[in-house]
Amino acid sequence: MSGKAARSAEALAAAARRRRRLENALPWLVTVWMFLLWEAAVRLFEIPPFILPAPTDIAESMVKWWHPLMTNAWATLLTTFVGFILAVGFGLALGVAIGSSVLAYRGLYPLLIAFNSVPKVAVVPILVIWFGAGFWPAALTAFLISFFPIVVNVATGIATVEPELRDVLRALGASSHDIIMKVGLPRAMPYFFASLKVAITVAFVGSIISETVAANEGIGHLMLVASSRFDVPLVFAGLIVTGVMGVLMYWVAVTIEERTTGWATRGQNDPRLATGG
């Protein structure tokens, strides 16, 4: 029986290793197949490049215009990162305030919902009037479009601390500040990192929106110039570069989450799906 049990354990371990290898390779396989199907569809239906370029046409454009792409990608990444950091600081502080105070929730939440409902592209001209075209309108647009998910998720995490637990802690002499810092914030961390994975992706949207309206550099500006020349492969190249940057920033957020809140997953194999919004 012991030999059979050992063989069974080895078989289970080997199956687990194969599954992990498949999980690691699956994103690459799906991406490669998507581009292959894309290429085949364009060639099969003879779609003109100015309507839908093939991946090979986009790759040629990326090689041809690699220096402008990298320069403008760096500008977009910088503005997005600054806006995202501002959103993290502001969103965390406001989320703690709203989640720990009913009065703050009643007073601020309707205003936040109304502000988040305003199309950010309509705010960009105002930011340009205040700060001029360039870096700050893009960074602030990224901030404005990405702080709301952080506020909502942090407030939810803190507000879901059980009333019974609060009562017990107060009976033991804990202050409201102690409850927030030692129970509320740790409880909110999984929500917080879930919101980061949402916020970092929409932050790029904010930067690109601003760059297409009023900027002298950035992927949005590059795409606008390319579309004015009907250089559609370059437009798609800008989209792909932006997607790659978004995936990299998402991966950074996931890595930090796994290092700091691994306890919250309770042994789940993959905590990478964002549940915040």
Which helices and strands appear, and what pairs or packs with what?
Layout: H1 2-45, H2 55-64, H3 66-100, H4 102-117, H5 124-131, H6 135-159, H7 163-171, H8 176-213, H9 219-228, H10 232-260
Largest sheet: none
Helix content: over 70%
Derived structural class: mainly alpha
Which fold does the CATH topology of the largest domain refer to?
MetI-like fold
Oligomer: single chain
CATH H-level homologous superfamily name of the largest domain:
MetI-like
What's the total helix number? Answer: 10
Radius of gyration: 24 Å
Short description:
This protein is mainly α and 277 residues long. Helix content is 81%, strand content 0%. The protein contains ten helices and no strands.
List the keywords.
277 residues, mainly alpha, MetI-like fold, 2 domains, 10 helices, 81% helix, disordered C terminus
Overall description:
The protein is mostly helical and 277 residues long. It folds into 2 domains: 1-46; 55-265, MetI-like (MetI-like fold, Orthogonal Bundle), CATH 1.10.3720.10. Helices cover 81% and strands 0% of the residues. It has helices at 2-45, 55-64, 66-100, 102-117, 124-131, 135-159, 163-171, 176-213, 219-228, 232-260. Helix 9 packs antiparallel against helix 10 (232-260). The longest helix is centred in the first third of the chain and has 44 residues, at 2-45. The protein is flat and about 75 Å long.
